[in-house]
Amino acid sequence: MQSASADETHEPLSRIAARPALVSRRNGVFMEHRFGQRFRCGTAVLVSAGDGVTGGGRLANVSLSGAYVETAVDLPLFALIVVAAEHGDRKVEMHACVVRKDSRGVGVEWSETPARPICRIFGCTKQCEVV
Questions:
Q1: What span, in angstroms and rounded, lies between the C-alpha atoms of 4 and 25?
Q2: pLDDT digits (tens, 9 = 90+) for 74-100
Q3: Left (φ > 0), alpha (ψ -120 to 50) or beta: where does 42 sit?
Q4: What predicted TM-score, i.e. pTM, was given to this entire model?
Q5: What stretch of H or E contains 40?
Q6: What CATH number has the domain bearing residue 123?
Q7: Same domain for 118 and 69
């Protein structure tokens, strides 16, 4: 089954498939949910899911709507997780849902849109690079 956003359902599929931003490597049309710019990150995090599933990870890139977390933790699709990091003397936690996974990690969508940049929330000290 193929999907497209509501704004694009009136266009012929061949026209949608011609747009690189809407086509996956397998030529299947997908819906992109990300908003805001994506930034390379690198911050070390702790990923936790229910039932005591916890492990280390790294925020490979972040945006206002989500992130890609490189981790060896086996997280199922749609799992509700907590992504945590130490920021100075306080612990920072962001709740998220796993929306994509591959052999290197998971793509997550934040449960709430943050009121400030993710880099500031997780205490990044270097200038973020736009991906």
A1: 16
A2: 999 999 999 999 877 888 899 999 999
A3: left
A4: 0.70
A5: strand 39-40
A6: 2.40.10.220
A7: yes
